[in-house]
Amino acid sequence: MGDDDARAKRIRLEEEPHHQELPHGGDGGGAGAPDLISRLPDEVLGDIITLLPTRDGARTQAVSRRRRSTRRPGHAGPGRRFALPGFRLRDRLAMVDGWLRSRALTGLREIMFSYSPENCWQPPPPPMPPFALRFAATLCVARFGSCGFPNEVAPSLKFPHLKELSLMEVTISEDALHSLLAGCLVLEILLLEYNKKAPEATKFQELVVEDAPRLERLLPLNPKRGPATIHVMRAPKLETVGLLSAAISKLEFGTTAFQEMIALSLGTSMATVKVLVLESLGPNLDSVVDFLKCFPCVEKLYITFNRLKTMKNARIYNPLDPIECLELHLKKVVVNDYRGMRPDVNFAKFFVLNAKVLKEMYFGVVPSCNDMWVANQRR
């Protein structure tokens, strides 16, 4: 090899990327694999570790000397998420409150807190830890369950960043709930299930969504757990609605009104809604079609049959009176508790024949259905 060739080879080697010098194996990489994560700055690596579940974060630090060195003494923070679901209270309220006072949780973004049902057998329910609401200024997600809400602080609470709020089996006064929702300035997801009014501890009868400019999902999940009346006056970004059922005695979207799932008037069109979840008595095809007129841009329709009534569902689609949802948008239909009886078949055939852009239709059936039954349904 000549001098020029040797010099060219030396230059090429010097220009090779420096990954050849990275450590292998011992700091978390596999055999022959560089540990690129450990090259991140301490601040970035620390943030990654705090976002991991506690067990995974501990494992990560156990296999890497570098990651152990970034662990903050006593978990000084910042903590991103505090989750304590199904907590058995006994006499430990002060202990939990102490955890929530920790400086490591300053700037908390998510909180999930609920008591074990064993704490809630006798009213009143145990109170929410007072310091659970000290993070109002920074929270993005808040989920509370099986506890009593401190009504007296609700009017002063402001949640400038809260996008998701879940209250499940929470006892709260009606005024406090309204004040709480008024303080959620950018709320996108609201989940309410089986909440009760304090001090009477009776089920909520009415939910009014007066002005929710960022609300995307309205989820009254269980048809038997109220509220009995829902009014949605303004929610310009609402995309998902359900479960709606006859247990909601009156349902209003602007000037559109339903009573026990039967349309009283069809005025306001909720064109932003893309996902609709219904429980249909019968099943009642006419009622479902009226909902599709109110929600003309639904792309995914989920229906559970409730067989308190018998419907023939022999509706004929009139192309001279088209339904926008069926003509342009509906792509997926899911039918639960499908048993293959004549009303069920007529209900399904209506969508198969008339939903112009339908791509998928799923049937939830009972496990006892045999191959002959399935073949007959396909036919």
UniProtKB/TrEMBL annotation:
Region (Disordered): 1-37, 56-81
InterPro entries in the cross-refs: F-box-like_dom_sf, F-box_dom, F-box_dom-containing, FBD, LRR_FXL15/At3g58940/PEG3-like
Compositional bias annotation for Basic and acidic residues: 1-24
F-box domain boundaries: 34-69
Composition-biased stretches (Basic residues): 64-74
PANTHER family the UniProt entry points to: OS12G0595200 PROTEIN, PTHR32141
Name of the protein: F-box domain-containing protein
Organism encoding this protein: Panicum hallii var. hallii
